[in-house]
Design goal:
Layout lengths: L7 H7 L1 H4 L3 E5 L6 H9 L6 E6 L2 H14 L5 E5 L5 H12 L7 E4 L17 H20 L7 E5 L28 H21 L4 E4 L14 H6 L7
Helix pairs in contact: 1-3, 5-6, 6-7
Length: about 240
């Protein structure tokens, strides 16, 4: 089938035999986001367990209720994790590793986009911390604690926004762009975090883990809440999420 022109529902139906019985964890699972859309698409095909992960219990519960309304009998679980806090990440990973069920697929979808300049609880630039460092730690903890020989498959949601990263990742000061190391740019910082997602997936693959990174397409979700008209113009008249 021509996947580039297919809907999520069509793709899920095509791979229904591979979805059946999988225990899948998805971060950023609040309603009206990509995580919730993915969960809705795969829910009818008998996954073993769907773990809805995010910062807000209320938002996750709303998403869970919608899933159960459309797919009664679906096995779900809620997981609180805030990628702006590495303590929260460690606590959530420990909770997942204590499940009776073993996660077979983890989808790192949660993120922020073009936020005002700021820091995470651990002093990391917000976009780089939430989009890369938090998911990096969470994924590694899940892999390290997984029962071998079947660790979870890791899916890292990135973005074509990395094309705006003209000077590469500023490893000395992540989240700020090279040439002007003390200058914060919303687009450049977002692009660096998304490039880091791709590099992370590639590094996992080289080390023998099953991992992929992807650009989900140009989709208007709550992720663009911080963008102004000028940001759209600066990004070449398009929002790449």
């Amino acid at each position: 089938m021509p996947f580039q022109n297919s809907t999520a529902e069509e793709v899920a139906e095509h791979f229904k035999d591979q979805i059946r019985g999988q225990n899948i964890l998805v971060t950023g699972a609040s309603l009206n986001g990509l995580g919730a859309a993915f969960l809705k698409a795969i829910a009818p095909y008998s996954p073993g367990l769907l773990v809805l992960a995010g910062r807000s219990h209320k938002a996750l519960a709303e998403s869970e209720a919608e899933l159960l309304k459309e797919t009664p009998g679906l096995k779900t679980r809620l997981l609180i994790v805030d990628f702006a806090s590495l303590d929260s990440v460690r606590k959530a990973a420990a909770e997942v590793l204590a499940y009776d069920e073993k996660i077979t697929i983890s989808v790192m979808n949660a993120g922020v986009m073009m936020t005002p300049e700021g820091k995470t609880a651990d002093g990391i630039e917000t976009q780089f911390g939430v989009n890369h460092v938090g998911p990096f730690l969470f994924t590694n903890l899940l892999l390290e604690g997984a029962t071998k020989p079947a660790p979870p498959r890791s899916v890292i949601v990135s973005s074509m926004a990395q094309i705006y990263m003209a000077d590469g990742i500023n490893f000395d000061q992540p989240g700020y762009f090279n040439g002007q190391k003390d200058t914060y740019g919303k687009i450049e910082s977002y692009a660096q975090s998304k490039a880091a997602n791709v590099l992370f997936a590639a590094a996992l693959h080289r080390r023998g883990w099953e991992a992929v990174s992807l650009h989900p397409g140009v989709i208007a979700t709550g992720l663009v809440r911080h963008m102004t008209d000028q940001d759209y113009r600066d990004a070449g008249q398009s929002t790449v999420t």
